[in-house]
Design a protein that fits this description.
Structural class: alpha/beta
Radius of gyration: 18 Å
Largest sheet: 6 strands, mixed
Number of helices: 9
Oligomer: single chain
Strand order of the largest sheet: 6-7-8-3-9-10
Shape: globular
CATH class of the largest domain: Alpha Beta
Bound molecules: adenosine-5'-diphosphate, magnesium ion
CATH topology of the largest domain: Rossmann fold
Length: 244
C-alpha cells in the first residue's frame, strides 16, 4: 500500500532522513522505532507532504505521491496525528472532530452556516468509537493530556483515512493509559479495516502491537521485518535494544 524508497531529506547540511526504506501492506500494523533524533517524525512529515524529499520516492497504492501537498495526500486517504498536540483547544471535543469530517466533505465550520448541523452522526460515530462521546461537549483545551491524544486520533479518523499515521500516540501517557490507548488503536485498525503506521518509544508496546517493525538510526533504515526478525538483527541489538 505504501512504499518508501531510499528517501533523503536535509535541513541545511544535515540529513535528517538519509536513505529510509519502508514497505507497508494493506491491513498491516507497522511501527518505526529508533532513538530520539533518528528521523522518525521527519519521515512521517515526508510521507504526509509536510516536507518535500530531496530525493527518493514515496508511492501510495502504486501512485508516486512524493512532494505532493498535505491536503492532496490527505484526500488520497492518508491521515496522521502529530507528536506534539494539534487540536483546537477552544473548540469542543465534538467541534474538533466535526471540523475534520466537514473538511473531508469539502465544507467548513462557520457559526452562521448550516454546516454546523451537518455530519453530526458521522462525528458522533467517531467519538463513540474512541470512547469520547460522553465528553463531546467539553472544551478540548480543558482535557487531560491523555484524552487530548485520543482526540487527536479521533480528528485523524474524521479525515476518513484508509492509512493512518500516528506519531508517538502515547507520548506523555501513564503505563495504564499507554496500554489502553494501544489497545484502542489496534481495535480501531482492525474494525475499520485501516492500515497503521506508527512510532513509539516503548519497545515492549511496539513488539506486542506491530506486525512488522522498521528500525531507523541516523536517518537510515537499519532493519525491517517481523518483530522476531528485528529482535535477532545484530545491528539493532547493538544500536538500540541492547543500549536501552
Ligand atoms: P525523531 O522523530 O526520530 O526523534 P526527528 O525526525 O524529529 O527525529 O528529527 C531528526 C533530526 O532532524 C534531529 O536531529 C532533529 O534535530 C532534526 N530536525 C528535525 N526537524 C528539523 C528542522 N525543521 N530543522 C532542522 N533540523 C531538524
Ligand atoms: Mg519524533
Amino acid at each position: 500500500m505504501l512504499r518508501v524508497d531510499n528517501l533523503i531529506n536535509s535541513f541545511g547540511d544535515f540529513k535528517a532522513v538519509d536513505g529510509a526504506n519502508l514497505t507497508v501492506k494493506e491491513g498491516e500494523i507497522v511501527a518505526v522505532i529508533g532513538p530520539n533524533g533518528a528521523g522518525k517524525t521527519t519521515l512521517f512529515n515526508l510521507i504526509t507532504g509536510h516536507l518535500r524529499p530531496d530525493s527518493g520516492r514515496i508511492s501510495f497504492k502504486g501512485e508516486d505521491i512524493s512532494g505532493l501537498p498535505p491536503y492532496t495526500i490527505c484526500k488520497k486517504g492518508i491521515a496522521r496525528s502529530f507528536q506534539l498536540l494539534n487540536i483546537f483547544p477552544r473548540l469542543t471535543v465534538f467541534e474538533n472532530v466535526q471540523v475534520a469530517v466537514l473538511s473531508q466533505h469539502n465544507r467548513s465550520l462557520n457559526l452562521f452556516s448550516p454546516a454546523r448541523n451537518m455530519l453530526i452522526e458521522e462525528t458522533n460515530r467517531i467519538l463513540e468509537n474512541v470512547g469520547l462521546l460522553d465528553k463531546a461537549h467539553e472544551i478540548a483545551g480543558a482535557f487531560s493530556h491523555g484524552d487530548q491524544k485520543i482526540l487527536e486520533i479521533a480528528i485523524a479518523l474524521g479525515n476518513e483515512p484508509e492509512f493512518l499515521i500516528l506519531d508517538e500516540p502515547t507520548a506523555g501517557m501513564s503505563p495504564e493509559e499507554t496500554t489502553a490507548t494501544m489497545g484502542l488503536v489496534k481495535r480501531l485498525t482492525v474494525e475499520q479495516g485501516l492500515t497503521l503506521l506508527f512510532c513509539e518509544h516503548d519497545i515492549d508496546i511496539v513488539f506486542s502491537t506491530a506486525d512488522r517493525i522498521m528500525v531507523m538510526q541516523q536517518g537510515k533504515t537499519i532493519s525491517e521485518g517481523t518483530p522476531d526478525e528485528v529482535r535477532q538483527n545484530e545491528q539493532v541489538q547493538q544500536a538500540y535494544i541492547g543500549g536501552d
